[in-house]
């Protein structure tokens, strides 16, 4: 038996959490959009309490997403919010703005803190820097390759979380770019009125002329405009490479996916993790795990290895 | 630093806050310098500090970038004017970038660099440890938007934070009210439309790492926007883009000073010598004019006109007053051609003869309409008369880059004065 890595996913509601727990999730990243970035649903503090009760009764963890870039107004409300999260019993707070670290130190000493700055968490020395300032976990940027991921894990005492499945955010602006664009078109007579397009449920995507097959989802929310990758990361075939070096947490990004899709993906990774941990030496990848995912995968979105086996230049 | 008494004033673009002022001295004017020559001109035209890139750890891997020798020369030149030189070490490092960092930072310190501009904690911390004379300024790449985060970095020992470009004037004033620290803000130039550091379009489109200097400006590309399988606007319509207009806060200097911003930063390490000198010149005059007499300050239209002679880019005020809207983005095809070309630099001037030696930077000839300008807004127009080489041989045109051409100027000029010509 090897120590099992955690299988972490986001969820939009308590009902979704129940289904994902049944499928094999070990931990959830949830929160409300005032404080958390790109969440599939809003959990206010009362619902957070419910979520924690539900999760803990299944021995599952709940991490609160407080990873927005904060403005002054939001900072004023952070102490009360963080106290509320502590009272709700969340297992950790996920942050990307030092303001949250400051508030958590003051309001919830002892609370576990996960440093998640998306694209900018790129080396082990930075992991250790945040570790010395109170972070217990380092959430890696998705734009790292396997060697870099392994080196970070080898050179830090912090828990290391790696995304293994789903889309990734590739661009985040505070500007309402979709609305701006349609306003511009309305002015030019291209559209009759300015539609309230651009919400997540509108399903808009961008296509660049030289990459006709690639669809980049784009949507707006109170946090601004988000553009997402055209492919879905899928590391299930090679998950053992990450398990061999004891990566602590595997993240599935469930955003913009149906609950059925996410259940399928969680089941597949659950099976792979359980099989590996039962017998690391005898472990073999089972093609059926991937086949189940492929059955529910949107054919316009490629399943890819992301940056795990890529060389980047600059 | 010089301390100037300033009374609270109300301008047309009135500050929305009153009460305590958090600074009384002149803000620093901080200019980009893509190479040694640009550094010298930026300083000569009035920059209090310049920021440059070295051979490593900077976000402009395509720029000229300075060797340590060039840095030393730049620092020496700047120091003669009382100006400082900062180095951008603003990448987000990967594991393999860490070796060599200590030596690099020690070299910067030895070269007399005043500060580094850094985003990644590994660079911040290493600099504090191995090069204590280097100030560390937090880069805009950290997208710092609130006073609590600013306070965090102050507690970490940083004397200055470059704010994210999403902060408003009001928020900046609040930050200054909460934290006693130097605040630097971009006030002019091209802008990331994303939160800085939170864009990996280049990584996805071209395998170039944007946070290590590989940005290929995919935000300026054109995109079709679809819902399901349906393209949402006609084929001939302007396409979708994230491309932002450039920032220009020249008309709002009093608001920026009143908000307490300590350093006014101009973007553009890739920009031309003509551009850097012109923009610095305009802001220098505006700042000095306001500080000299805030109550009677007036924006001079010529400052804006001058900037437009060096860069024909649509401009806006970013997030300073409001969230940018439809009119703040560039959907139409751009006409980037500038109305004036940089034509030459004055090398020397002989008062007795009224003859200047001009180093050629673009074709000109007898009959060309030109403008001479220098620091502090010195300016005159003339038509080029007879020109000769330095041996007195007549020339029909100045054709060769860097050739020295002798010509009569209608008013006295000084070395490093510039000459531009109208082209459209």
Automatic annotation (TrEMBL), chain A:
Pfam families: Peptidase_U32. InterPro entries: Peptidase_U32 (IPR001539), RNA/ubiquinone_mod_enzymes (IPR051454). PANTHER family: PEPTIDASE U32 FAMILY, TRNA HYDROXYLATION PROTEIN P2. This is U32 family peptidase.
UniProtKB/TrEMBL annotation, chain B:
One of its GO terms (biological process) is proteolysis. One of its GO terms (molecular function) is peptidase activity. This is Collagenase-like protease. Gene3D superfamilies: Translation factors. The lineage of its organism: Bacteria, Bacillati, Bacillota, Bacilli, Bacillales. Residues 340-420 form the Peptidase family U32 C-terminal domain. Coiled coil: none annotated. Belongs to the peptidase U32 family. The keyword rRNA-binding does not apply. Keywords: Hydrolase, Protease. The keyword Transmembrane does not apply. InterPro entries: Peptidase_U32, Peptidase_U32_C, RNA/ubiquinone_mod_enzymes.
């Amino acid at each position: 038996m090897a120590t099992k890595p955690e299988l972490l996913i986001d969820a939009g509601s308590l009902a979704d959490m129940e289904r994902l727990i049944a499928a094999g999730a070990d931990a959830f990243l949830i929160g409300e959009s005032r404080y958390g970035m790109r969440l599939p649903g809003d959990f206010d503090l009362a619902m957070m309490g419910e979520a924690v009760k539900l999760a803990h009764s299944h021995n599952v963890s709940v991490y609160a997403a407080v990873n927005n870039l904060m403005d002054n107004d939001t900072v004023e409300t952070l102490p009360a919010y963080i106290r509320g999260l502590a009272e709700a019993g969340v297992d950790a707070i996920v942050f990307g703005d030092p303001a949250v670290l400051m508030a958590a130190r003051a309001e919830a000493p002892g609370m576990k803190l996960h440093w998640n700055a998306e694209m900018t968490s790129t080396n082990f020395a930075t992991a250790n820097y945040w570790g010395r300032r109170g972070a217990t976990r380092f959430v890696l940027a998705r734009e790292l390759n396997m060697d870099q991921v392994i080196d970070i894990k080898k050179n830090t005492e912090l828990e290391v979380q790696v995304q293994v499945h789903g889309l990734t955010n590739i661009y985040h602006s505070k500007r309402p770019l979709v609305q701006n664009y349609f306003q511009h078109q309305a002015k030019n007579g291209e559209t009759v009125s300015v539609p309230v397009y651009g919400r997540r449920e509108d399903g808009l995507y961008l296509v660049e002329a030289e990459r006709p097959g690639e669809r980049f989802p784009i949507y707006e929310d109170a946090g601004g405009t988000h553009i997402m990758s055209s492919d879905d990361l899928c590391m299930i075939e090679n998950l053992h490479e990450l398990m061999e070096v004891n990566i602590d947490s595997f993240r599935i990004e469930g955003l913009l996916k149906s609950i059925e899709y996410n259940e399928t993906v969680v089941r597949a990774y659950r099976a792979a993790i359980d099989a590996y941990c039962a017998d690391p030496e005898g472990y073999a990848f089972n093609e059926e795990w991937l086949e189940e995912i492929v059955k529910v995968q949107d054919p316009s979105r490629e399943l890819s290895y992301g940056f795990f086996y890529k060389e980047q230049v600059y | 630093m010089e301390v100037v008494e300033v009374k609270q004033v109300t301008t047309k673009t009135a500050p929305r806050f009153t009460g305590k002022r958090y600074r009384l001295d002149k803000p620093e004017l901080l200019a980009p310098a893509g190479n040694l020559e640009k550094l010298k001109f930026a300083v000569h035209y009035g920059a209090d500090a310049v920021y440059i890139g070295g051979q490593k750890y900077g976000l402009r891997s395509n720029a000229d970038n300075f060797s340590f020798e060039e840095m030393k020369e730049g620092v020496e030149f700047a120091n003669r004017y009382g100006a400082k030189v900062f180095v951008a070490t603003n990448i987000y490092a990967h594991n393999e970038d860490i070796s060599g960092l200590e030596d690099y930072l020690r070299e910067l310190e030895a070269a007399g660099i005043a500060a580094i501009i850094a985003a990644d904690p590994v660079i911040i911390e290493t600099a504090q440890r191995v090069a204590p004379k280097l100030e560390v300024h937090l880069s805009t790449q950290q997208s710092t938007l609130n006073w609590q985060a600013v306070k965090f970095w102050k507690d970490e020992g940083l004397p200055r934070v470059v704010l994210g470009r999403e902060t408003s004037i009001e928020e900046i004033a609040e930050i200054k009210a909460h934290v006693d620290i130097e605040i630097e803000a971009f006030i002019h130039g091209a802008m990331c439309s994303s939160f800085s550091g939170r864009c990996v379009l280049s990584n996805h489109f071209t395998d170039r790492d944007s946070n290590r200097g590989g940005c290929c400006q995919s935000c300026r590309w054109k995109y079709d926007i679809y819902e399901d399988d349906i393209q949402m606007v006609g084929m001939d319509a302007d396409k979708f883009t994230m491309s932002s207009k450039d920032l220009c806060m020249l008309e709002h200097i009093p608001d920026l000073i009143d908000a307490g911003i300590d350093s006014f930063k101009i973007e553009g390490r890739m920009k031309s010598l003509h551009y850097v000198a012109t923009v610095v010149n305009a802001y220098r005059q505006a700042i000095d004019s306001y500080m000299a007499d805030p109550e009677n300050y007036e924006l001079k239209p010529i400052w804006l006109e001058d900037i437009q002679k060096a860069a024909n880019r649509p401009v806006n005020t970013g997030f300073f007053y409001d969230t940018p809207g439809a009119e703040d983005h560039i959907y139409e095809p751009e006409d980037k051609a500038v109305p004036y070309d940089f034509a030459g630099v004055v090398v020397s001037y002989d008062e007795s003869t009224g003859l200047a030696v001009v180093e050629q930077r673009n074709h000109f000839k007898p009959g060309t309409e030109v403008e001479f300008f220098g620091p502090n807004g010195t300016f005159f127009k003339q038509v080029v008369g007879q020109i000769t080489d330095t041996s007195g041989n007549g020339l029909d045109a100045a054709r060769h880059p860097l050739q020295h051409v002798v010509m009569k100027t209608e008013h006295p000029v000084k070395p490093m004065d510039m000459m531009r010509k109208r082209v459209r």
